[in-house]
Amino acid sequence: xxxxxxxxxxxxILQILHxxxxxxxVVGGCVRDSILGRIPGDWDITTSASPEQVKALFPRTxxxxxxxxxxxxxxxxxxFEVTTYRIDGAYEDCRHPKEVVFTSSLTEDLKRxxxxxxxxxxxRESGLVDEFGGLADLENRKIRCVGNPEERFGExxxxxxxxxxxxxxxxxxxxQDVKDAIRKMADALDFVSAERIQAELVKLLxxxxxxxxxxxxxxxxxxxIMPQFDRIMVQRQNNSHHIYTxxxxxxxxxxxxxxxxxxxxxxxxxxxxxxxxxxTDENGKDHFRGHAAYSEKTAYKIMKDLKFDNxxxxxxxxxxxxxxxxxxxxxxxxxxxxxxxxxELFDSFLLVKRADIMAHHPDVVAQKLDYLKEVAHIWxxxxxxxDCLTLKDMALTxxxxxxxxxxxxxxxxxxLQKLLEEVLxxxxxxxxxxxxxxxxxxxxxxxGG
Length: 449
Description:
The protein is of the alpha+beta class. Helices cover 52% and strands 10% of the residues. It has a seven-stranded mixed beta sheet with strand order 3-4-5-2-1-8-9. The chain has a two-stranded antiparallel ribbon with strand order 6-7. Strands 10-11 form a two-stranded parallel sheet. α6 crosses α8, α13 packs antiparallel against α14 and α22 crosses α23. The model has no long low-confidence stretch (mean pLDDT 94).
């Protein structure tokens, strides 16, 4: 019999419900994660008490989803979702039940859940309630639906993405009937909001197995939510730098970068423009000149369609646009590169370069990594010395130029930009007096007097 250590606040809610004659259990992901030795993110509670009865027992509650039986019980600043046992009515939009009916049966409530590993409940009094073999599926590392997969996916099409995401997070395998149902029903994802698809995609990508997006491809999910990925999976790369298709190269690159949303999205998109620019020469060698710019356009469209926030879009597009940049091994070129993309992204750029290189042909990896090590060494020196990389780092400002007699206007911007170019090449010249003297010379050149 599994034993689960329930946190004090969640245990107190269960105790109050029990003392007042109601059944109550922690349920779902917190039970699954506890059995697996993982730290649950949330402790959800299911109970035979109605929402009104729950609200009567606790002094601070929030009606977070009361029409579906969910009340959030607040304990200090921490909230716990308490949901009444329910039976879902018909699903008319592949997302939400038209209505719910409250029930006194825990089994009926568990029966409506998506996967067996998420359909277990636990209380100290009753122990583990596992009506559908969730514990065995955890032990066998299987993702299996509760009941008929087509029925579960017909209720909520996003469950198809959740199946793949759980497989990637846990390193589990989809059962064959789950795979078959997804292949048959993937088109229903068109009915799911972009925000929900985005959330599942990100969870998959930042999982320990981001390359398992290939499973989404094999099950037909990406052809619906991101058909551009299907194109790169079959795009060959016949040249000395590669041994994989563009898609497999992308999967390997995903495995070689930290589990950060921006970094993983960058690796997912970094070569998506290659099918748009591929040229095969008379020797059968494939070339992809300009693919970074096309990849950026593709990344922008996909992220816009999936309702990503503007900051994420900007950072990912910047890194995708610049991922093919190989700065020369000079301080000047590294500083210029950092200036162009933004110094705050240059460390990420180095991680992207490394992940990209690790997915190249084994014969070129060592040499390219040696090069990248030198770039990183130069960059560390730049940071150590605090070299000027942007206008705000420069020892001279527009205010200084105005105080020196320069008229406000575009000339100030032109002069500052010229001075920055000089400082990027010669960082030791970032001295106010020197720059002020140079500004006077530049002003004469620009204005003719």
